[in-house]
Design brief:
Blueprint (H helix, E strand, L loop, with lengths): L1 H17 L3 H7 L4 H22 L5 H15 L2 H8 L1
Length: 85
Amino acid sequence: MVAGVAVGVVGVVLLIVAVQSPAAWKAAADHSKRFWFLWALVLITAGLAPVAFTDEVPTGGALAWLVVCCVLAALQPSLFADVLG
């Protein structure tokens, strides 16, 4: 449940990035949309890596690692500045 919520939050943030108009994004954002999508992809992959080797639902340390990676992917001050700019 927690893992799904964590990954879902990253998905919502990326959806907000995706729906921004390209012209407005280029005018206001310091980072490209591609940068933020790659940033999230790398962190989600790193967060899910322990699960890939165990084939289990993440619990304990693996769950904590996934949540930390999702927080790092979604809660970047510069990402919010790009979206709100």
